[in-house]
Amino acid sequence: QVQLVQSGGGLVQPGGSLRLSCAASGFTLNNYVIGWFRQAPGKEREGVSCIGRSAGSSYYTDSVKGRFTISRDNAKNTAYLQMDSLKPEDTAVYYCMCRGEWGQGTQVTVSS
User: Fold this and answer.
1) 10 phi/psi in degrees, rounded to 5
2) pLDDT value at residue 55
3) Tens of pLDDT along 29-88?
4) What is residue 17's three-state secondary structure?
5) Cα-trace Rg, the chain
């Protein structure tokens, strides 16, 4: 069965860190581009970051540059989004996506 299973997320204070994971099954993650998206209440889903098949090729939306880091562990067939210096405006449901498959989403809440 082809699926992406997310983990991580939760509640964190401003300035804190979280790491999201996206584990693939049914296909090999390293053959594809992987993306992370987020959707805040009342807003459209937006792209946050993506990483190409080459680990050196990555993209970040301006609002997270310097704070978020995307990576992949091919041995574990898992992608990650390390989020540091979190801000309240980062609060959203985060989704990973690969080859048209979406993870189930995970809530990230940044609040004091």
Assistant:
1) 130, -160
2) 58
3) 888 999 999 999 999 999 999 998 875 689 999 999 999 999 999 899 999 999 999 999
4) coil
5) 13
Q: Which residue has the tokens 């540059």?
A: 65
Decide: 82 and 29 in contact? Cβ < 8 Å. Answer: no
Quote the DSSP letter at residue 63. G
Long-range contacts of residues 1-6, Cβ cutoff 8 Å, at least 24 apart: 1/25, 1/26, 2/26, 2/27, 2/101, 3/101, 4/96, 4/97, 4/98, 4/101, 4/102, 4/103, 4/104, 5/103, 5/104, 6/94, 6/95, 6/96, 6/103, 6/104, 6/105, 6/106
39, 92 contact by CB (below 8 A) = yes
Q: Phi and psi at residue 17, in whole multiples of 5°?
A: -130, 150
pLDDT of residue 1: 84
